[in-house]
Design a protein that fits this description.
The protein is an all-alpha fold and 137 residues long. It has a domain of 75 residues: 434 Repressor (Amino-terminal Domain) (Orthogonal Bundle). It is built from seven helices and no strands. The longest helix is centred in the N-terminal third of the chain and has 17 residues.
Length: 137
């Protein structure tokens, strides 16, 4: 009988792989930093093994992020209505373009990242009517 991974564990696994990749860490380098084998890091990233609380703290420290970062954006799929479901496909973080954009974004100073994020969110929501008025003046 196989154990089905919990959605929270899978989310943490995806976020772990994303951050490790963004930092340019190999699985071996992260494993050495937190005291496990690279095979264990592979299992964490695939969601085959749960990351315990103390290990997650060590991983967060090695990757220079707060533990809460691993849970950002999590929404329990059983609680999401169809119209609220994200439009991203499951493989988006395995795309080269996604990784290049994320690496470039996190290469910016934090203050500039906030402005870039605001700009992208503004573009996503369409042009602001007040901004259109400014352009016509």
């Amino acid at each position: 009988m196989s154990r089905q991974s919990d959605p929270i564990d899978l989310h943490v696994a995806q976020r772990l792989k994303l951050r490790r990749s963004l930092m340019g860490f190999t699985q071996d380098r992260l494993a050495q930093a937190v005291g496990v084998s690279f095979q264990m890091v592979q299992k964490y990233e695939k969601g085959e093994s749960r990351v315990g609380a103390s290990r997650l703290m060590k991983i967060a420290e090695a990757l220079d992020i707060p533990v809460s970062w691993f849970f950002e954006g999590f929404r329990n799929p059983s609680m999401v209505l169809a119209e609220e479901a994200p439009v991203l496909d499951d493989e988006i973080f395995s795309r080269r373009e996604t990784m290049e954009i994320l690496k470039a974004y996190y290469g910016l100073p934090e203050t500039l990242r906030k402005h870039v994020l605001g700009m992208v969110k503004g573009l996503q929501n369409g042009p602001d009517s007040s901004a259109d008025d400014d352009l016509e003046s």
